[in-house]
Amino acid sequence: MNRLWHYCRPLAGDSPRARIVQQVVFGLGLLAAALLLAAISEARAAEGEGVEVEEALGTMGAAAARQDGATKPAWGEGLGLSGEGSYVAPAKVSGASMSVWQEEAKITYDTGTVGVDLGYVTGQYAFSNVGRLPFAGQAPFERLSRLEAGLTVQGGLWDDISGFVGLRGTMGYEKALTARGLGGTALAGLSLPLGRQWRMTVGGGVSLTPVAVQAVPLLSFRYAPDSLPELTAELGFPRTEVAWRGGSWWGLRLTGGIEGGQYRLAEDNPAAPDGVADLFSARVGAWVDVYPARGLGISLGALYALPGTMTLYRESGSRLKTYDTGGAPGGALRLRYDF
């Protein structure tokens, strides 16, 4: 018995080995939860809900998380520039297939209590076997773009409880900017501690899109263990992330979240003239982050877009048809510089 106890002791109690095993198991559990949330998000898309609020929720979640000072070093406060390119391989769309090459550029300014961001996203959509789509042998669109802007205000309320308010606007279009593609979101919420290692962010708001007005929920739980400071995890909607900082110059991340948007189509669009295209999918990824110089971050990711939807609306706002889209692998490269 004593000999057996001798071999089991390293895994017992609060030993370093036991803590590492616990954190690894916990991280794998959060990854499984990320996949579950992505599947739930896809089910919401099947019900036809819009996803124009993705960036607004992501910004609010990041802003709330930064209030505890765990996600951003002091020298990173201020001006930031970022760019990203991603590719998703052909996925099935009603007998046809669609691949996507997307580019994004963003500028941010963060004082710690006030954050402002401006961004531009454009995607090139390559359809094959378009004869199987009901658009007279034409692709429903080839390029969709959107402009984004956001303002976030955050600060302490009492004790360790803090709050945030955010306003965000988007304008999605096919060929030319138009006010009819404008959407907006207003969000507010609280961030409060749940013990020493957990923090909960809860809130909500309302989003106005070109085709609907909808409620916006926000709920996330952030975990930062004292015994393993290299590990951080954020579990919630619409994004989940488990991150491991391997050293001063590299790190690993597992992510799950929502990708999509709503876009006002052109007058000569073959699928829905002057209508709206609503794209929705859940995406999971594995990332390697490298920090070769102070302020510079380079991220390389392997992605998988889960099955989603492509919904077309008439000019009046009534739904024309929803098409299921299949899953497909992809990849992304992201650059960021903080002054």
Automatic annotation (TrEMBL):
Protein name per UniProt: Uncharacterized protein
Upper classification of the organism: Bacteria, Pseudomonadati, Thermodesulfobacteriota, Desulfovibrionia, Desulfovibrionales
